[in-house]
Design goal:
Mean pLDDT: 95
Low-confidence stretches: none
Number of domains: 2
Number of helices: 14
Shape: globular
Distance between the termini: 26 Å
Length: 351
Amino acid sequence: MAALKRTIVRGGLESLYFTGAHHVLRPLVGGVGAILTLHHVRPPRPGRFQPNRLLEITPQFFSRVVHDLRESGVDLVSLDEMHRRLTEQDLSRRFICLTFDDGYRDTLQTAYPILKKEGAPFAVYVATSFPDRLGELWWLALEEVIARNSRIGLAIDGRNQTFDCATVADKRALYEELYWWLRARPTEAEVRETVRNLAACYCVDIVAFCKDLCMNWQELAELAADPLVTIGAHTVNHPMLAKLPDQAARSEMEMSRSVIEAVLAKRPEHLAFPVGDRTSAGPREFAAAAQLGFKTAVTTQPGMLFPHHGKRLTALPRISLNGEYQRLRYVRVLLSGSATAMWNGFRSDAA
């Protein structure tokens, strides 16, 4: 199913590009700018089973994207400048914001030198349990459990089940099935408990992913010292906020900001909702972010920015640079607004 979806999406992007439809549609659906979502920028990993490859792009591709944006004449701006333009409706020039979720070490080691060379501002949204080395990147733990084993057992809806996953195809299918089953759990606690138990059963250290992949506070301080860099809040534990009670969701947002301010001496004014789709962040979370005083808050719901987003600053859409679609022409199609307009049924507001 995942492979079929990728084929359909790729075909749509190719059609929009080679027919020139993205050029025709851009004046109608291109908006005033966009926020790009990134996670990892790092060399390709070996191995055919990589269900989270969509979260990573190569340094070569990223460098080409940033250079192409510069050459296109679009303004690369900080979140503060984006906020100013939207609130003041100073929208005569198109702009792009570059944002990185989670605070991975390759943001510092690989993406930062590219952006520094181009003088491009960017933001890093930090889930504070990651540099504290207490976080759970559960989607990576699930991948590791399946990668290491040819058969696993798990209680699904109260029934013990065994899953064969000896082949790459079996592993891909099982990951997709279990990932979306977990995403559908009614509470965040159930998601975490299930993956903790699975990881413990198959000897996967779920906390080790933070140490191996995420920046520590010293590395974050190094980034934060550069005026090009904005450090944003991304909650404490990276939960799907919509699955939490109201006060717990607000505490995740507020405590994240307080921890970052205490360690880095900079108070985050911008927030990214973890996961960020419609099942993870909605009107309750948008209102809470505004009430807590964040200037902006971003989702992962696909879409361009339009003038009316100046009144919806805590429900902003973004465009993902997806590792499965690393072609410059795809980025040009996405930034024309044509692909997301079709995805959203030609509504200008995806949130």
